[in-house]
Amino acid sequence: MCGIVGIVGHTPVAPLIVDALKRLEYRGYDSAGVATIEHGELARRRAEGKLVNLERRLKDEPLDGLIGIGHTRWATHGVPNETNAHPHFSNGVAIVHNGIIENFAELRQELIADGYTFSSQTDTEVVAHLIARELAAGAEPVAAAHNALKRLQGAFALAIMFKSDEDLIVGARNGPPLAVGHGEGEMFLGSDAIALAPFTNSITYLEDGDWAVIRRNEISIFDMDGNRVDRKRQQSLGTSFMVDKGNHRHFMEKEIHEQPEVISHTLAHYLDFANGRSKPLDLPFDFAKLDRLAISACGTAYLSGLVGKYWFERFARLPVDIDIASEFRYREMPLSKDSAAIFISQSGETADTLASLRYCRKEGLPIGAIVNVRESTIARESDVTLPTLAGPEIGVASTKAFTCQLSVLAALAIRAAEARGTISAEEEKLLVRQLAEAPRFATQVLKLDQQIEKVARELAHYKHVLYLGRDTNYPLAMEGALKLKEISYIHAEGYAAGELKHGPIALIDENMPVIVIAPHDRIFEKTVSNMQEVAARGGKIILITDRKGAAAASIDTMETIVLPDVPEIIAPIIYALPIQMLAYFTAVFMGTDVDQPRNLAKSVTVE
Ligand code: G6P
């Protein structure tokens, strides 16, 4: 899930490419590079680490070429160093790549036998050599690229440049997204529309198997057989602004604080607050006729789906099978004809989620997608897009997308319950009214920042943390643990509170704080018993509860974070905030790179 850019321009392109790469840094940030053609020769600058290092390099040794390609990397094959950084060269061919060439080992052997030498450990370099070999055999650049593409197996988005033609970039897509941008006397190529936003909002998305010949005055798109294909040119939405941190230290902090507003926008999209009803949706299935719902997603999006399962089953009496997409795609799960599938993804590009969607498509299921990026592949390949209105999420650790996903799922569960007749009009009105309160309560919770920061200062001293919760707070416990480990690098586990006695209790001592997420709901007492078990073994408890819970739990805690008393349906949305804030402040105390934690990427377009 690297980011790639290409520009055939009329002014020096290197600064423009770096600007576009900044917008793509969410896709990977291990190393970066730019190549241009300088006085008829390929030239490149590459640097290990963040883009700022590449910018520094370019300041010392600028590039002036009018055509170029650039890359920001998330390493798959080969450690993140300068030698493995893209672009890769071979005899007049320059290439940047996102994805994995699955048959690279075989191709590498073949090329070595033909006398090609490899200077990197990447799978990408085989593509550069393959094209160079075609050129050496007499093919023209475009034909050389096409012939080489036919040899590739796996997932790729590629930008290819030739020193012999300063008016040509070839782009190719099989899996990871790639968009071409139309300009006047200049053309662009990029992993997404946001990367190209400062240059153009006139975009054509390549489809799987497409490859494009991009010249200053013309773009032609072909399929793998070499037939010309017509792809829609569209105005890209909402990408014309540069996302910045405002007056926040990190994007994550800003995104946490945006939640009252974006939750409100998202809920208003699905709920008619004035009449206390869920809005009708143009769905490719009828909730009343479904016997099961399959939900699949990755990471934080998966955990939102897990909360959704509780809601669909409780309110709509609709059984839900939920899977991590990387398992779902290979599990060959039998799917009944009366099922529908819902996929959840912030980026709409996650490779495993997309593969699961395609499996369900093949099985003939109607498909809905809860996505934040409306122009994404998952959105385009589903029968109905159910948008989260979170706006661009830049911090790698998902925050506002999560609570917006929860908002959509809650609204959908109410819609399903109404369609299946499992709630009355009065109950629907009450639930809608309760959801309408979520933004107000979220605002109140954000005001607990000082107390949560104090707890985080303590937490930063520990190496292991356990999160416990029951019911919808169980997925939240897992989300809390995920957030903490991904940005602070403290080992954390999320468990169903009732499972404590089946294993994790053996770990409890004064060195492992236990964060208990327990609003005063119908199973609060059960969770209190689990807390007693922790306390009896010298465990330190951080309790996140509400006023009633704080009054009822007569247990010594390291700290009790008291939230307002909120209706049960919005509890997962509201309780998500303190766990995000706790992870955020802890990471700040640990001094980690909060928005771009090590080894992670925002959009995972490889398996
Ligand atoms: C990565 C991100 C997570 C995200 C997951 C799924 O791991 O770091 O924040 O939850 O991918 O991404 P998606 O875009 O499909 O929601």
What is the rounded Rg?
26 Å
Which residue ranges are poorly predicted, with pLDDT under 50 across at least 5 consecutive positions? none
Multimeric status of the protein:
single chain
Q: What summary fits the major beta sheet?
A: 8 strands, antiparallel
**Helix share, percent:** 25-40%
**CATH architectural group of the largest domain:** 4-Layer Sandwich
In brief:
This protein is of the alpha/beta class and 607 residues long.
Secondary structure layout plus pairing:
Elements: E1 3-8, H1 14-24, E2 31-38, E3 41-48, H2 51-60, E4 67-73, E5 88-90, E6 93-101, H3 104-113, H4 125-136, H5 141-149, E7 154-162, E8 165-174, E9 179-182, E10 187-190, H6 193-196, E11 202-205, E12 211-215, E13 218-222, E14 234-235, H7 251-257, H8 259-270, E15 271-272, E16 277-278, E17 292-297, H9 299-316, E18 320-324, H10 325-331, E19 339-345, H11 351-362, E20 367-371, H12 377-381, E21 384-387, H13 400-420, H14 425-436, H15 438-446, H16 449-459, E22 464-469, H17 473-488, E23 491-496, E24 514-517, H18 524-535, E25 541-546, H19 547-552, E26 559-563, H20 571-590
Parallel strand pairs: 17-18, 17-19, 19-20, 20-21, 22-23, 22-24, 24-25, 25-26
Antiparallel strand pairs: 1-4, 1-10, 2-3, 2-4, 5-6, 6-7, 7-8, 8-12, 9-10, 9-11, 11-14, 12-13, 15-16
The structure holds 6-O-phosphono-alpha-D-glucopyranose (G6P).
